[in-house]
Write a structure and sequence with these properties.
The chain has one domain (about 1-164). The protein is about 45% helix and about 15% strand. It is built from seven helices and four strands; from the N terminus they run αββααββαααα. The strands form two sheets. The protein has a two-stranded antiparallel sheet with strand order 1-2. A two-stranded antiparallel ribbon has the order 3-4. Helix 1 (about 1-20) packs across helix 4 and helix 1 (about 1-20) crosses helix 5 (about 105-115). The longest helix is centred in the N-terminal third of the chain and has 17 residues, at about 1-20. The protein is globular. The two termini are about 30 Å apart.
Length: about 160
């Protein structure tokens, strides 16, 4: 859960300032907070996980309260990930998010994502549970770009991701 929250904050903060995401993932308003459904599904797929075994190990556990829900324990292997893939802006936000939440538990991070007027909260109230969280809900007075600029950049990102 903590990894999903860290990625959520990384993507939504980066979107707010630059109009693009870091991971390209879509997040959904699940009961315990925002979840990148594709990554969640990938963690359930042994074939996909095998591709990344040199970097990390994932252990799938059934939720005690809900047998249809899973959680994952992730441990990094000694080989460090290649950070050269990230831009300086992405690395800066990544460092800020990691520092801000370094001592937080997954439960504490979940509570933060549930605060009033967060993108998760707005999605739950406007569309209901398990619905796509719109990145534009991250835009506020601290955003550095106009709404038109953000939409243009995000559209370009989506087009480029679809070509891969």
């Amino acid at each position: 859960m903590k990894l999903f929250k860290l990625l959520y904050f990384l993507d939504f903060i980066h979107f707010k300032f630059y109009g693009t995401t870091v991971t390209g993932l879509d997040y959904f308003a699940w009961p315990k907070g925002p979840v990148p459904r594709k990554l969640y599904d990938d963690f359930s797929n042994e074939e996909i996980l095998a591709r990344y075994k040199e970097y990390f190990r994932v252990i799938k556990e059934t939720d005690e309260d809900d047998s249809s829900s899973y959680s994952f324990k992730i441990s990094l292997n000694k080989k460090s990930p290649g950070l050269k893939l990230f831009t300086p802006n992405e690395l800066k936000i990544m460092d800020d998010v990691a520092f801000q939440f370094k001592d937080s538990t997954a439960t504490e991070m979940s509570e933060i994502t549930h605060l009033k007027n967060t993108p998760w909260d707005k999605t739950i109230k406007q569309k209901g549970k398990n619905q796509l969280i719109d990145y534009e809900l991250a835009i506020d007075e601290d955003s550095r770009l106009s709404l038109d600029e953000i939409r243009e950049r995000y559209q370009l990102e989506r087009e480029l991701n679809n070509k891969q």
